[in-house]
Amino acid sequence: MTFSPIMFARHSQIEAADSNMLQVNKNTVVIDFSGTEAIPFLTTILGLDLNKLTASGLGVKGTLDGDLNSNYSFALYYFSATAFRFVLHTDAAAQLQALISEQQLRYDIEFVTRTDLATLTLSGEQAFDALVEAFKLTPGLRLSDANSCYGAQSGEVFITAIDKQSIQYFQLVAKAPELTKWQTYLQQRGFDMSLPDVA
After folding, report:
1. Cα separation, 124 vs 155, whole angstroms
2. How buried is residue 116: exposed, middle or buried, by Cβ count under 10 Å (0-12/13-18/19+)?
3. How many C-alpha atoms does 89 have within 13 Å on its Cβ side?
4. Is residue 3 predicted with pLDDT exceeding 80?
5. Is it the case that residue 199 has pLDDT exceeding 70?
C-alpha cells in the first residue's frame, strides 16, 4: 500500500482570527464548471489570470463587480484544464449562472449548481492545526498572494483556505449530513458557532 499525502495550504502573510469560530453558511453556493473552452471563458469573459493555477487545488479569488470583498466575489478552484469549482455567495451565483448560460452558444462550457453541497467556515489560531489533524492533511504549502486560495479533497469533504479582508479562513464543502458530523467534531474541540458569513 502506498502513502499518498493530501497537501494543504494556508496564507503566509495574513492574520488568523484570535478566537476559534465556526459558521454554517446559508448564503454560499458551489458551482462545478467545466468544458473544453473553460479557460478561454474564464480569462476572456471573467478577466481572470489563471497562469498561477498549475496544480489541482490551486485557486484564485475573483469578482463580478470589481470588489473582492462584496457579495459578488468568488473563489475559483482548478481541478484540470477543463474542470473548475466556484464557491460563492448566492447573489454572485445567480449572476454567474446567467452569464454562463448567455455564453454557452459561444463557448463549450457547462455548469452544475451543487445543491447537494453545503459549506462550513472556520477561523482562529487553532483552525489550521485542527483541520490538518482531523483530515490527515500534509501542511506543506504556503500561499504568498492574498488573492490565491487552495482546496483539497479529503474523503467526502473539500477543504479550502481563503483570505477574506486580511483574515485567514477555511471552508469545508460537503453534503449536509457529513458537514453536520464535522461541525459537531469542531465544536467539541472549542470552535464556537458565531462567525459572520464568508462567501
Report:
1. 24
2. exposed
3. 17
4. no
5. no
> pLDDT confidence of 143, banded at 50, 70, 90?
confident
- Angle between the 127-135 and 176-188 helix axes, to the nearest 10 degrees? 120
**Cell (9 digits) for 28:** 454560499
Highest mean pLDDT among 15-29, 118-132, 138-152: 118-132
Q: What percent of the chain has pLDDT over 90?
A: 70
Strands (E), 64-176: 73-80, 83-89, 110-113, 117-123, 137-143, 148-154, 157-164, 167-175
Q: What is the pTM of this model?
A: 0.91
- By CB neighbour count within 10 A (0-12 exposed, 13-18 middle, 19+ buried), where does 20 fall? buried
User: Which among 48, 46, 59 is positioned nearest to 86, based on CA atoms?
Assistant: 59
- Cα atoms in the 13 Å half-sphere on the side-chain side of 70: 10
Q: Is 83 helix (H, G, I), strand (E, B) or coil?
A: strand
What values do phi and psi take at 84, rounded to 5? Answer: -140, 165
